[in-house]
Write a structure and sequence with these properties.
The protein is mostly helical. Helix content is 70%, strand content 2%. The chain has a two-stranded antiparallel ribbon. It is globular, with a radius of gyration of 22 Å.
Length: 393
C-alpha cells in the first residue's frame, strides 16, 4: 500500500477518531462532577485516574502528527508547554492549564471551531436533559433539600439531579454562551430564549449569579441584533492589549482590596449577603492556605478543616498558583484585545460576562474549554503562516 496514503489516513482519520473519543470521555468526567451521580460511582470506577492518563495520551497523539509532518521546532515548544501544564498539575492536581489552553489548541489542529462548538453545545444540552429528566421522573441521585433563607421565609431550590442548584445555572449558562458563540448571526428571538432561561434559573434553582449573567446575555444579544454594524477601529493592538491588561489587574486588585479591607461591606451585604460571603471566604482562604508559585492541593471539605471558596479571583491563585494565574490573566487580556481588534464583539461580550461571573463563581473549570477557542484558533493560523514562511526559504 502507498506509504503516503497510510500517512494521510493516519493523520486524517485514525488520530481524529481517537482524539474525539478521548475528548468525549473527558467531557463525561467534567459533566459528571456537577451531578450527584458523579460522587456515587466516580471513585469506584477510578474514572479520575483514567482521565489523568487520557491527557498525556492526547498529547502523544498530537506529537505523532507533528513528527509525521516533520515540524520539529514546533514540537519543542509543544513539549515545553506540556511540561508547564504537568508541573502545575503535580503541585495542585488541577488540569486548568491543559484543559483551557492546550486541549483546545490540540483539538483545533483536527477540527474546525464550528464543529467543536456544535459538538459541545449538543453534548452538554443532551446531558442536561437526561439528568434533569431522570430527576423529574423521581430517579434523583440525592434526597438533599436546598433552601435559601430570607428575612422571614425561605426558598426551596431545585437541583434537578445536579450536585447543587448553582450547578443547574452553571450548566445552562455555559450552554447558552456556546449557543450564542456558535452562530455567525444572532437570531431574531435569541434574547427571548436567554431571558426565559434567566427567569427559569432564578425561580427553579434560584441561582442568582447565573441568572444575572443570562439576563445580561439576553440584553447583549438584543442590542447586537439591532446594532451589529457598529465597528470601533484601533490603530495599535499593543496599546489595546496594554490598556486591557492594566484594567484587569485593577479589577482583580479592587476585588482583593474590598475583601481584605472590608470596603463597601454594608453596601454589598445589602445587595447580597452571599456575594459578601464570597469575598470573606476568599480572604480567609488566602490567610489559611497562602499562595504558592505553582499551586497546592487543598481540601474544601469542612471535615478536613476546609471551607468553600467560590470566587475565581481567590480560588485560582490559591489552588492553581501564582504563575498559572498570571498566565490566565495575561491570556484573558490578549483574548479581549484580539476580539476587539478583530470586531468579534460577541466573543468580547462573553469574555466580559465570564469576568463578571468570576466574582462569585469559578470560570477556570474544565467545562469552560470553549472560552478561548477563537483566540487559540487565531494563534494557530499565525503559527502556521510563520511555519509556511520559514519553509519557503
Amino acid at each position: 500500500m502507498n506509504p503516503l496514503y497510510l500517512k494521510n489516513y493516519y493523520i486524517d482519520r485514525i488520530v481524529p477518531f481517537f482524539l474525539f473519543s478521548l475528548f468525549f470521555v473527558l467531557l463525561l468526567e467534567w459533566a459528571l462532577k456537577t451531578t450527584n451521580l458523579g460522587y456515587t460511582f466516580f471513585d469506584f470506577l477510578l474514572f479520575g485516574k483514567i482521565t489523568n492518563i487520557i491527557r498525556p495520551f492526547i498529547f502523544l497523539l498530537f506529537l505523532t502528527k507533528l513528527f509525521i509532518e516533520k515540524k520539529y521546532k514546533f514540537i519543542v515548544y509543544c513539549i515545553f508547554f506540556f511540561v508547564f501544564c504537568t508541573i502545575s498539575h503535580a503541585h495542585s492536581k488541577s488540569w486548568m492549564l491543559f484543559d483551557l489552553f492546550y486541549l483546545p489548541f490540540i483539538l483545533l489542529h483536527f477540527f474546525s471551531i464550528d464543529k467543536i462548538y456544535f459538538f459541545l453545545f449538543y453534548w452538554l444540552l443532551c446531558f442536561f436533559v437526561v439528568i434533569a429528566s431522570l430527576d423529574l421522573m423521581g430517579w434523583s441521585f440525592s434526597s438533599e433539600i436546598f433552601k435559601r433563607n430570607n428575612i422571614d421565609s425561605f426558598v426551596i431550590r431545585r437541583s434537578l439531579g445536579f450536585s447543587h442548584p448553582n450547578a443547574v445555572g452553571y450548566f445552562l449558562m455555559i450552554i447558552s454562551m456556546i449557543y450564542y458563540l456558535k452562530g455567525n448571526i444572532v437570531k431574531k428571538f435569541d434574547f427571548v430564549i436567554f431571558l426565559s432561561l434567566s427567569f427559569f434559573v432564578f425561580w427553579v434553582p434560584n441561582s442568582w449569579s447565573s441568572s444575572i449573567i443570562l439576563f445580561l446575555l439576553s440584553c447583549v444579544s438584543f442590542v447586537h441584533r439591532f446594532y451589529k454594524s457598529i465597528y470601533i477601529t484601533f490603530s495599535s493592538f499593543k496599546i489595546v492589549f496594554t490598556i486591557i491588561l492594566f484594567a484587569l489587574i485593577l479589577w482583580v486588585s479592587l476585588i482583593w482590596i474590598i475583601a481584605f479591607f472590608d470596603l463597601f461591606r454594608e453596601n454589598i451585604s445589602a445587595i447580597s449577603s452571599t456575594l459578601w460571603a464570597r469575598f470573606s471566604l476568599g480572604e480567609a482562604g488566602v490567610n489559611k492556605f497562602g499562595i504558592k508559585f505553582f499551586g497546592q492541593l487543598i481540601s474544601f471539605k469542612p471535615e478536613d478543616g476546609g471551607f468553600p471558596i467560590d470566587s475565581t479571583y481567590f480560588v485560582m491563585p490559591i489552588v492553581d498558583g501564582l504563575v498559572p494565574s498570571l498566565f490566565f490573566l495575561c491570556f484573558f487580556s490578549f483574548a479581549l484585545a484580539r476580539g476587539i481588534f478583530d470586531y468579534k464583539y460577541k466573543y468580547v461580550f462573553v469574555l466580559l460576562l465570564c469576568l463578571l461571573y468570576g466574582v462569585s463563581e469559578g470560570i477556570c473549570g474544565s467545562l469552560f474549554v470553549f472560552l478561548f477557542l477563537p483566540t487559540i484558533d487565531y494563534l494557530i493560523k499565525v503559527i502556521q503562516e510563520k511555519i509556511k514562511d520559514s519553509n519557503a526559504y
